[in-house]
Amino acid sequence: MRTAEEHQPTAAGQASPGPRAAAVLIVLFLASFALTSSLSGPRNEPACLSAQCLALRIDPNGASRAELMLLPGIGPKIADNIIEYRDAQRPHVAFRRPEDLEQVARIGPATVENLRAYLCFPESDADTDAGANLP
Known about the structure:
By secondary structure, the chain is mostly helical. It is 44% helix and 0% strand.
């Protein structure tokens, strides 16, 4: 039921919209502002989250479980599988190139391709000797 106050004509002869309608308009305005702000993203950050933008490179020979889980498609189980395989290969280096990860359970060629841009490997045996003594 409408009150008499909601039907009082304004100077132009139209009914006033009332406080509820004003609140709805304010909410719609704020929502549209928030939506356009979130779509444009922060101005100081790159528009992409690829390996090239982030410069994220992880060496699977020495990365922690948490670091391995930063890689796309690598969850806790696969990270554990990488560490288990890596530890079984010591004192030798387990991974010298991306394709070596295919020896790890639950990692195949498609996963290796997705990870390739995010991986780095030791350049020489001297680099890997220090890594072989990691806990």
